[in-house]
């Protein structure tokens, strides 16, 4: 696991916008209502992680399907907490049809040598390869898991719904205050139809917009050295205090509290 941590740190010291993240904690972090917007592979490298009722120790992985919210604890004992996160896309799962109609919310297991090797190769290729190559690298990981006995890995693929379509538009420009009329133009639908479709999924434009912006803020706090003010601006907030208040109301910690709890990874301001 130490080799993987070192490789990730080295890559992050040289490049920005890499297709993986290294999360860290020097003090315990307790985060509430964390949304998983795309299937997410997490490898715990040191310390431990709790996700709702699950406990992950070093050398364990969990692969999460997209879900509206999860409660998490990152526990730096012994030593600092480090984990690698790789976000997958729906297109990565096209070779893996769903095995049945039952939902699979996660799969978990040990990080064996083949899996660690593929993840390490993904990290090393991340700064060199175009997205098409990285797409194949992600599929290699899925094939390995499938052949290792996780036959329901295809069930983790994001189930397309209307809320996700709206979310994807909002995520294309966090600085924009997306209104119903803007979404209507993008979706070629009436505003009333958009609202009705979202209501059938117990959702709304305001709720999706708020969650998308705060989730992006959570990611930036954990993976960059941006100031909290800059992060608020990146997420479309004109007021840092409003961003901080809404961030704490959703996740249970302020951005500053979360930032202070992290272990050093030496992110640069350009990340």
TrEMBL record:
Residues 164-261 form the HTH araC/xylS-type domain. One of its GO terms (molecular function) is DNA-binding transcription factor activity. The keyword DNA-binding applies. Keywords: DNA-binding, Transcription, Transcription regulation. It holds the Pfam family HTH_18. One of its GO terms (cellular component) is cytosol. The keyword Isomerase does not apply. This is AraC-like DNA-binding protein. It comes from Pseudoteredinibacter isoporae.
């Amino acid at each position: 696991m130490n080799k993987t941590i070192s490789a990730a740190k080295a890559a992050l010291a040289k490049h920005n916008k890499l297709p993986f993240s290294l999360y860290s904690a020097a003090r315990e972090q307790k985060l509430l209502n964390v949304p998983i917007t795309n299937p997410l592979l997490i490898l715990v490298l040191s310390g431990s992680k709790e996700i709702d009722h699950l406990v992950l120790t070093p050398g364990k992985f969990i692969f999460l399907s997209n879900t509206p919210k999860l409660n998490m604890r990152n526990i730096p004992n012994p030593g600092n907490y480090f984990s690698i996160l790789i976000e997958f896309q729906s297109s990565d799962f096209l070779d893996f049809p769903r095995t049945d109609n039952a939902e699979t919310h996660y799969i978990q297991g040990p990080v064996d040598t083949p899996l660690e090797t593929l993840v390490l190769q993904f990290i090393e290729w991340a700064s060199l390869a175009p997205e098409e190559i990285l797409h194949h690298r992600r599929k290699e990981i899925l094939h390995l898991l499938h052949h290792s006995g996780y036959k329901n890995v295809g069930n983790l693929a994001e189930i397309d719904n209307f809320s996700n379509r709206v979310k994807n538009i909002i995520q294309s420009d966090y600085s924009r205050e997306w209104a119903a009329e803007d979404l209507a133009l993008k979706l070629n639908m009436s505003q009333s139809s958009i609202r009705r479709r979202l209501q059938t999924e117990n959702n709304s434009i305001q709720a999706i917009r708020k969650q998308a912006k705060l989730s992006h803020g959570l990611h930036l706090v954990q993976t960059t050295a941006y100031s909290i003010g800059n992060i608020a601006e990146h997420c479309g907030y004109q007021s840092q205090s409003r961003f901080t208040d809404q961030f704490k109301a959703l996740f249970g910690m302020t951005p500053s509290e979360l930032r202070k709890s992290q272990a050093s990874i030496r992110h640069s301001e350009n990340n």
